[in-house]
Design brief:
100 residues; alpha+beta; Alpha-Beta Plaits; two-stranded antiparallel sheet; 3 helices; globular
Length: 100
Amino acid sequence: MAYSITSPCVDVKDQSCVEVCPVDCIHFEDGQDRMLYIDPDECIDCGACEPVCPVEAIFENEAVPADQKVWIEVNALWYQGEEGKARARARVDELVPPKG
């Protein structure tokens, strides 16, 4: 079981979750990513990140709301090498089109 970050994080990127994660499994590349991602293979399911998220974007995978389930895949995709990162970024833009 792991946690995933969902759409409320897009264009917010508050890093409170990064600060409390005991295994450093939450990442993003500044200037390239519009949100943060949780590595499903590194997450130890401790839940420390969930209560500190100011936009309530983090959920245990089994508790992700139905309309946000796609974000589980987006998080995992980001950790599949450079091609995965590019595909995750494209998927974020598709799901939440950039403003402007």
